Amino acid sequence: MDRKPGNNNISVIRVRDVLIVTMPPEPDDSVINALQESVLNAMERHESQAVLLDISSVEIFDSFFARTVSETAQMVRVMGGRTIIVGMRPAVAITATQIGLALGNVETALNVDRAFDLAATRPKPEKHDKSSHE
Amino acid sequence: MIKAATNNSPSGELWIKNENDIVYARGAVREAAIQLGFGQTDVTRIVTAASELARNTFKYAGEGVIRWGRVETGSRMGLQLQFVDRGPGIQDIDLAMQDGFSTSGGLGKGLSGSKRLMDDFEIESTAGHGTTVTLTKWRANW
Fold it and tell me: Could you give the angle at the alpha carbon of B142 between the alpha carbons of B75 and B14, nearest 5°?
């Protein structure tokens, strides 16, 4: 990940088997596009089993961002891992639900602490969700 | 469309020509919404709708203009956004407004979603001539 340091980049750190991926507050399309590669490469490098995607500073979660997150979660699953979205702000949760953004295939947690607890549990069995064909 | 404004009311326009302009448009709309006194949830709704439509403008028309300004009618005050492009237009507006419909492989939430986030929503489009989308969010307790 040869990304320049700065406050609009994705940060990826590893804690034990878990990757904590933090999105900047105002990710532009190129940052969002970099998400998949950053996450998948880090997963391979660190042999991580869970990805905590921290969006607690994200103010705008639109359908483009949602699609990328949902696709990334699917790729993580194909690689044998799981994705937990962490810290969605109330205003963002209201807006995303009103638009009808389906994140049904992604687990969520209120904060990083709880996400770690969740990551330590066994993943829920795969749901066969027909609506996930977007 | 956007009525004459008093001096201190936020209004402006911005060309959307590349992906970064989507971020600039969001920032400008956010500032206007905050200036007009919208609460945090409404600001997020308005900026998210702006993001969806700015991306549509860029993706389908290549470029276009976003305008924003304060509107007042009778006892109501709100923020109006308008997206104007001279792109290919929309063949079938009813179909395009359907939740989940997309010609680009997207989620198909851009138009239907932003309509749900705002209070008023108008779309005019002529195939071959372009599309104009006008949205308004009215302030509660004004």
Answer: 90
**Interface confidence (ipTM) of the complex:** 0.85
The Cα–Cα gap between B67 and A13 comes to 40
Contact A28 B107 (CB under 8 A): no
Gap between the Cα atoms of A79 and A85, Å rounded: 17
Span A82-98, pLDDT tens digits = 999 999 999 999 999 99
Looking at beta carbons, which residues of chain B come within 8 Å of A8?
none
Q: Determine, for residues B109 and A91 on separate chains, whether the beta-carbon distance falls below 8 Å.
A: no
CATH of the domain at B126: 3.30.565.10
Give yes or no for a contact between A65 and B87, defined as CB atoms under 8 angstroms apart.
Answer: no
Q: What is the pTM of this model?
A: 0.87
Of the partner residues B23, B45, B113, the one whose CB lies closest to the CB of residue A28: B23
Alpha-carbon distance B4 to nearest alpha carbon in chain A (angstroms): 30
Q: How many domains does chain B have?
A: 1
